[in-house]
Batch of 3 targets.
Target 1
Amino acid sequence: MMPSARFPDLEGQSVLITGGGSGIGAALTEAFARQGAKVAFIDIALQPSQDLCDEIEQATGNRPLYLRADLTDIAELRRAVGRAEEEHGPVTVLVNNAANDVRHEVAEVTPESWDDNQAVNLRPHFFTIQAVAPGMVKAGGGSIVNFSSTSYMLNIGAMPAYTAAKAAIVGLTKGLAGRYGPDNIRVNAVAPGWVITERQRELWVSEKALEAHISRQCIKRTMLPEDMVGTVLFLASDASRMLTAQTLIVDGGIL
C-alpha cells in the first residue's frame, strides 16, 4: 500500500529514476507519477518496463517515460538523460536506485568481476549525477537521492564488492552534497534493510531466513518496496529543504 502523503511541490517536477522498472524502482516510479510528477526511468528490461508504464498510466492517467539503457555503458546513460531532459525539461529530482546484489565468494572475485560489480552498483551513481547536474543548476536547484544499503553496516561477508560499493555511495553522497550545496542541490542517501522484492523471493528468501531477520527488527513485519516510498518522496520534496549530506536508514529498526 502506497503512503498517503501528498507533496504538492513534486507536481510537475522532472524526475529521473535509475532501475525504475522493477522492485523498489517500480514502486518509486509509480509513487512519483501519483504525485503528478513528470517521471522518466531507466531500465534495461524492455517488456516489464513497458508493462509497468501501461499499468501506471491506467491507474493514474500519468504515463512515465521509459528509457531503455545499459547503465554500465556511460554513453548510453548520457543519451538516456538527454532524452529525459528533452521530454520533461531539466531533471530536478534524481533517484539513483539501480543495483545488483549478486553474492560472490572472496576467492572467486577476479579483477574483471570486481569492475563489473562497481560498473552497476557505484559508477552509474556518479555519472548520472554528472549528467543531470548542469540542468539542475540552471533550474535553480534540486534533490538527488542515492540508494545505499545497510548490508555494509552489518558485516555481511557474502558480497564484498557490493558492500564496498554501497559504502562508497555514502562517501559520494557527502562529497557531492558539499560540491552542489551552493547551487541549491541537496544530495542524500537512503540505506534500506532487507526489502522483499520479487527478485529477493526468487533468489534469497527462505521462510526461516525471513523470520530470523524480522525477529531482529523493532517493527515486526516484512519490509516491501512501497516502504521506501515515503522516505524518498520526503527527500525529494522541499519538506526536507535543509537536509543534505545525510544517510537515512530504513530497516525496521535493526540498526
Target 2
Amino acid sequence: MSDHGPTALVGDSLIQGGDWQAWLPDEIIYNFGVGGDTTDDVIARLWDVINARPTLVALLIGTNDLAWRRSVEHVVRNIETILVTLRRELPEAHILVQSVLPRGHEFADQIRDINRHLWQFAPTVHAQWLDLWPALALDDGELNPRFSDDRLHLNVDGYKAWLDELIPGLERARELPPSSRAIQLPDLGGTY
C-alpha cells in the first residue's frame, strides 16, 4: 500500500477507462474520470476532488472541448482555473499536468497550442508538466493508430505507452516541493 497518500486522477473517458488500481497497485487511486467531460465539467465537479484530499492530483482534460468547438483560449483558461483552484485549496498537494493527448491530425495544431500554453503555465502553480505527445503522436500530430481504434480512445497498447510515461511522471512530481506558501506581509497599519 502507498506510503505517500492517495492519488487523484482527474479527467474524461481516457482517465475513466483506465484500470488504474491494477496498473498502479502500490498507489491509493481515486478515479475522477468521467466520459465526455470537458474542462467546464471538471470545474463544475472540482470540489469532489478537493474534498477527497489527495496528496497528488494528475490532470488530463481538454480533448472533448475541441469536439464541442471550444477555442484554444477557452480550454487553456479553464485548465488554468482548475490548476489555480487546486493549488489554492490543496496547497500541500503535488500536481501533475498531463498534455492533451493527440487524436485525429485535424486537431493537432490546436492541441499543440494548448499544450504549449499549459507547459508555460504549470510552473506558476508549482505543478509538474508531463508531455505525452512524443510517446503517442505521429509526426503529423495524429494519435498513433497502434494505440487507438477510433483516433481518440486508447486501446491496451495506448494505455501501456501512457503508463510508461505516467509512472516516472508521478515519481518526479512527488520529488518536488508541493508549493511555496504565500508571503504574509506584516500589517503596517496603513502606513504605506
Target 3
Amino acid sequence: MSQTVVFVGDGLTVAGRWNEWLPEYEVQNLAVSGYTTDEVVASLPKVVATAPDAVVLQVGTNDLGWRRSDEYIVRNLETIIVELRKHLPGARILVVSVPPRERDYSHLLRSINRHLRQFAPTQHAQFLDLWPSMAEPDGELSIALTTDRLHLSDEGYAAWTAELKPALEFLFQSPPSSTAIPIQHV
C-alpha cells in the first residue's frame, strides 16, 4: 500500500501535477489558488480528516499581496505546523520554503524562511529550502523558472520536483514524530 501525501497551500501548490510527478505516492492536493496562511489555518480540519501519512505545506506568498508582515505570516505558519503536529501526531510533515518571487519581496521572504527553517524541527517537521535551486543571487525568482516572477513555469515545477522527491524519500526514512517525555511532578 502506498503512502498518502497531502499537499496543502496556495496556487503554486495547486498547479503542481503531483500525482503525475510522484506516482510512488497516493497524492491528494488540497491546495487552493489564492489561499493565504489565514485560509490554510481555517482549512486544517479538512486536512486532518484525510489522516495522511505525510503533509507537504507550502503557503505564504499570497499574504505578501495583502501587505502582511513577515511576523504575521510566520505566526500563521507556526500555528499551521503546531496544529498539524497536534492533530496528526503520526504524520510526517514537510515544510517547503516560501519560494522566491520579485526582488522587492526577497528581504521579507528570507526572513520568513529563516524562521521556518528554525521552527520546523521544534515540531518534528522537515524543512525543504527551494531557494538554492530557484533564486537568483539578488533573491528574485529565476527568469528560467517563471513567466511573471511569481508563478512557476514547467521548468520551475521541474526544479521543485527535483528537490521534493529526495526530501520525501528522506522524510519517509525518518520516524514520523517524537513525543516529548512528560515530566512528573513530585
